[in-house]
Design goal:
Elements lengths: L9 E2 L8 H7 L17 E4 L8 E3 L4 E2 L3 E5 L4 E3 L6 H14 L4 E5 L8 H19 L16 H9 L7 E3 L2 H14 L7 E3 L7 H4 L2 H8 L3 E5 L2 E7 L3 E7 L13 H20 L3 E6 L6 H14 L7 E3 L7 E6 L22 H17 L4 E6 L1 H8 L5 H9 L4 E4 L8 E6 L3
Parallel strand pairs: 1-3, 6-7, 8-9, 12-13, 16-17
Antiparallel strand pairs: 2-3, 4-5, 5-7, 10-11, 11-12, 13-15, 14-15, 16-18
Length: about 425
Amino acid sequence: MNIGSGQHAFLHYQYIGPKFKSFIKLLSCNYTEFIKNGQIILVQITKESLSKKGPKLTSEISLSGRYLILIPFAEKILISKKIKDRKERERLISLIQRIKPKNFGLIIRTIAINKRIPTIENDLLSLTKKWKNLLKFLKQKFTARILRERDRALFILKDLFNEDFTSIICDDDNLCDEMDTYISSIYPSKTGIIKYYRDKEIPLFDQFGIESQMKISLGKHVSLGKGASLIIEHTEALHVIDVNSGITQHKKIKYKNVALDVNILAATEISRQLRLRDMGGLIVVDFIDLVEYHHRKKLYEHLKVSMKNDKAKYKILPPSKFGLIQLTRQRVRPELNIETDEENPSKNIEAPVAYISRIESVLEFLVKENIKKMTLHTHPFIAAYLQHGWPSKQQKWFLRYKKWIKIIQRDSFKYLEYQILYSDKN
């Protein structure tokens, strides 16, 4: 099915669903038992395009809110399995039975726990309003996207925002306004925590060290501290994670009890990495061998506890005889891949003296143009070289140009990449 995404989408007959006839009537089409070639139908993407596979579709439309999921043409009330408390389940179901509109089904999300009637009712009103707006487009006789999820930032807020948030910093003015409006509607007491980042000289990710954290946390090698690390490999069929203790062979006897501690540390980090990278499909983890059965059991139980807050569906198998733990995790959208490698400048590169000379030639030109303020953005290694020693290269520039050239380290830059920002104002 062509939905304009570049790859043909797939609608399995099992996901046409019992409400298909009702949607066809809304579209003013004659209902037939089978979908005809060229027929316009209403569908929703359930899984984004992954690799060479196109998006997966369903004709069972649902609209997701913060506390509820609205299902048109249904009467059922469902509740998240993660809400374990019996009294709370009964309270929420009783509440929804009182406010549920006719011909709609509702799913109560986990985040609805302990929420009051006005809060949940406002969410329901917002969803029904969205559905009414959607109906206005259903009579149109052309194919088009008629509804999309909010901006990714707002989508994350919908699922994760709570009273623990104290500040959110954003460098997009329009997005700041949208997030502020959204938070005001769901958490009036948190209105005003959105801060607009105004500094145009230093990018937001560099200012707060996020760029470096991404390269450290999302690379092939992830440090666990004390020499231990994870090695994460990706293949077409599965993900493989190897736990490396960092202990050399001759030290294993002396530190034999450290294996469980490293594995526990690794299990905690692995659960975080799965959510951080949104890894899905089959994942095989090669933990450090544990001789004692109760150690293997403790590791298995710890991994299950660490995965408890993962919103994706998953299943964990007990450790095998070879110390491997296999798990599957729901794959909904493409995995987050951040480029953490940099080009190796060890062959056929410009001599360092020539590279620095090239930067100086630009600085000299700007000085002659009577530029008041200059800032050099460069790779951390280059910045360290320019600021090292007494007098440093930066100090020599001050004596030569009678201007202080500010140097800013940019973790996102390649070794020989630089930018010079300048202004006519002091």
